[in-house]
């Protein structure tokens, strides 16, 4: 198979322009990215609480600052002033390093995210991007994977069973959905002809990849929700069975670092989805025809962060709308649905690209045939699951009642007549009399 040619790039999408900045420009860029991420985290916490409050007909934070905008800052100060506790059974060194390992990769991944084209930055011509490389997307995936170690080590080093179970869940969940996320990006590489983030943005000059590669976009969006441990996929922190998950034993600033890493990762995956599927910093389709300067200067920052906030709103909307999935359902979705569909879609995209570049086959018939095969594949997967459930139902019905005391761990017996339903029985008091305890009588005397 011949090497696919690079997609037509905009003039600003040139890797040669990176690595030429003076040292003070690089330092200022890094500081600005750090400040943007910290402020974005404070805003996202406030934004999530306000949106969920509106969805649940509540007020939300409205006291600290105008519209409650300083509530996140007040929460941060509260966390910093809380008592810092380290369990006796904890591995102290790993326990202290785990939050740092979780939060540092969250900042580093933004080093290759393009915010805009080349601009005048304090008199220097430089792109609105810290750096870029030919394998920038692989760099993002590799750095994001390191953050998993912070969560796993935090759960293991705590010396708590609950934290350990939360860390194990997190590792299984993130590894599973990173596979589907990585496969969803292969189609983008085939169409863009590059793994550089700036060149991928330039390759979407005519049409966004989110439209022409819609299955990849959908798979990536589902995978990034699972990757960030957000509802309905927040199983590592399922309070019902794990108390709080991998960070159960953490408090004060160490807990705040885990919290910071989660919200930065929320913005990171939103920025990656914007860059790879929604044209990055480019203005929405049609705006550049009406306004010639929409994609020049610092205006692309508006389009970039507008698209990022759309994804963040989607995260908040899902949290306020959907219940948490069961763990087996969640893992089955990743391994039995997303990964097989991703593999089939990669084969389809590669076939279309090769035929469109070399072959004489009618592309319309080819796309229709591939769409039919994808529908049949997804249908067979769901059909197989429903058949399996139907066969197990009669077996459950034929089982005899299980005796909880027969050689097993003793459990409290059920009340006579079955479980109690409804509220507790109302309390009744004798009219006209007041009950006084012995302690109250002594105090009265």
TrEMBL record:
The UniProt record lists the EC number as 7.1.1.-
HAMAP family for the chain: NDH1_NuoH
**What PROSITE patterns is this protein classified in?**
COMPLEX1_ND1_1, COMPLEX1_ND1_2
Which controlled-vocabulary keywords does the entry list? Answer: Cell membrane, Membrane, NAD, Quinone, Translocase, Transmembrane, Transmembrane helix, Ubiquinone
- What membrane topology does this protein have? Multi-pass membrane protein
Query: So where does this one cross the membrane?
Result: 23-47, 93-113, 133-154, 175-195, 207-226, 255-278, 298-318, 330-352, 364-383
Q: Which reaction does it catalyse?
A: a quinone + NADH + 5 H(+)(in) = a quinol + NAD(+) + 4 H(+)(out)
The UniProt entry lists the main location of this chain as membrane
Q: What this chain does, per the record?
A: NDH-1 shuttles electrons from NADH, via FMN and iron-sulfur (Fe-S) centers, to quinones in the respiratory chain. The immediate electron acceptor for the enzyme in this species is believed to be ubiquinone. Couples the redox reaction to proton translocation (for every two electrons transferred, four hydrogen ions are translocated across the cytoplasmic membrane), and thus conserves the redox energy in a proton gradient. This subunit may bind ubiquinone.
- Return the protein name: NADH-quinone oxidoreductase subunit H
Could you tell me the superkingdom of the organism this chain comes from?
Answer: Bacteria
